[in-house]
Amino acid sequence: MIKVRNLDIGVSALLIVFGAYVAYKGMVFGYVEAGAPGAGFFPLWIGLGLAIFSGVNLVKAIRRSGMLATIDGREFVRVALCSVAMAGFVWLGGIIGMMVSAFLLMFGIGVIFGPRTRNFYVLLAVVSAGMTAVLYIVFGILLAVPLL
């Protein structure tokens, strides 16, 4: 049997995705036409409202379940920093190349999660450079993938 608490969390998550989909599809129809609300005006706002209020319900359900008490604030910051590092990898990949971006990503994630010692940073730089070389050999040479 499914607990109501878990069902509430699952349904809220699904409604967030559905609301975002409705809002996205609403934008396709046009927001304003000739100074009046277009065909996509109401689907956009209904989808956004559904996603936002489902998100509020999701946060409330997670708080009631006690799941947030088990997550340390420092761990949340580390995960957020890794997300920023991965977004930076994608953004920098087209500018400075995938290999340099991959090195920076590996080094950055190591800095975020690793110990704060000089020896660790030296070892991290060597391992990151070695893995970047392995990635270059596998993808750039053996598989002939263009690495920008």
Low-pLDDT segments:
none
Strand ordering within the main sheet: 1-2
Distance between the termini: 51 Å
The helix content is: over 70%
List the helices and strands and how they pair.
Blueprint: H1 4-28, E1 32-33, E2 36-37, H2 41-65, H3 73-96, H4 98-113, H5 118-142
Antiparallel strand pairs: 1-2
Helix pairs in contact: 1-2, 3-4, 4-5
Can you offer a commentary on this structure?
By secondary structure, the protein is mostly helical. The chain has two domains: about 5-70; about 75-140, no CATH class. Helices cover about 80% and strands about 5% of the residues. It is built from five helices and two strands; from the N terminus they run αββαααα. It has helices at about 5-30, 40-65, 75-95, 100-115, 120-140, and strands at about 30-35, 35. Strands 1-2 form a two-stranded antiparallel sheet. Helix 1 (about 5-30) runs antiparallel to helix 2 (about 40-65) and helix 3 packs antiparallel against helix 4. The longest helix is centred in the N-terminal third of the chain and has 25 residues, at about 5-30. The model has no long low-confidence stretch (mean pLDDT about 85).
